[in-house]
Amino acid sequence: MIKKIFIAVLLANLLFPTGFISATNFSSPNFIVKDPVIKIGGVFATSTSFQLWSSLGQEAIGISTTTDFGLRGGFLYFVGAPQAPSGLSATAASQTQINLSWTDNSTDETGFKIERSLTSGSGFSQIATTSADAVSYSNTSLSAATTYYYRIRAYNADGNSNYSGEANATTQSATVTAPIGGGGGGGGPPPAQTMMIFKGMAYPLSDVTLLKDAKIATITKAGPDAKFEIQLSGLTAGTYSFGIWAEDYQGIRSVTQSFTITITQGVTTIISGIFLPPTITADKTEVKRGDVLNILGQTAPAAQITLAINSEQELVKKTISDSSGIWLYKFDTYEIDYGDHSAQGRSAFLDNISPSSQLVFFKVGQKSVLAAPSRKCPIKGDFNSDCAVNLVDFSIAAYWYKRTLTPVLLQIEKEQSDGDGKIDLIDFSIMAYYWTG
Description:
This protein is mainly β. The chain has five domains: 78 residues, no CATH class; 85 residues, Immunoglobulin-like, CATH 2.60.40.10; 82 residues, Immunoglobulins (Immunoglobulin-like, Sandwich); 90 residues, Immunoglobulin-like (Sandwich); 43 residues, no CATH class. Helices cover 10% and strands 37% of the residues. The protein starts with a helix and ends with a helix.
């Protein structure tokens, strides 16, 4: 009887060779499957004559910790998440593109998840995924002169790998274009112009102001799509400080975006990808806890606004601007406790992310107090930033008349007056010109 069983098993092995069974990719010519294994859901064993003579294995997820755990047939095996990639590097390719590369250390990943942030160590969000075996990625539509931080991880059906190390790169700040030569008889081509061109997004039909060395160089109007372009010619070679800000439909001024640029004689320097931060205000200076606080402002059309409500624990809220760039978020003040708080926002449009807006402050208390209506701020002379030029500003200037200015006053004088670093009669003349009372 024992001999008959042995002969039957031998015949079974000849009739049903182990090539029908898949355990893993064993390449040895002497490999023998003594206990057939098959992964459930696999793509093997499609023969109509396939037979399984012994135990069945299946992929297990997790860990069985119960004391009553028992295996009644077959076995479990664990695949697990892939190995983490390494050697992540980031290289700026242009004003709007950064190229990433890394080393793929796994053989079973489905792909890679790419995350980006504007700060190191926090604020990361996923921006893309790649296919398996990818070792590079190009991130486009970025802002000029902006530092971006990246990290990646591999993933498959069993989960995510650990993160790679961080890598960062700063997009180029300017494109220098060779001048286009002209023809002409006898005298040779005319000298090329030395120009600056600024391109970006503000708010639909807003006034965009360009400052050169803290003085207004020109004011232009953005289009209905919020895009603007400013050309500044007649410059000489040298290093300049430029600033750009815009006023929204309520007359609220944006944060100034600053650039320090070295200009070469006879070339045109282009700064593109500018994305001014959104304006922000609130309809109440104090709000009764449980009432709605309307936080609003203006940015580019169809942009996503991310609001950070600063409390004991920061709250993050999101909304979308309309076709005029106007956005509104109705904040339920039951979410925060009594006391003083602030809110700050930034915009995202396609892959372009703006800097953060100014802070707007409010108090949660026992009553609601409406904020004063917004009004158009004077261009100069507003030393205390209340959108008015009056005796308060005059008093501030009078106190610092012919005194050494503190760093804070130096910045105020630079933005609100002639920027010569001192308070003298010229500053009072500027106040008189922009006087609002």
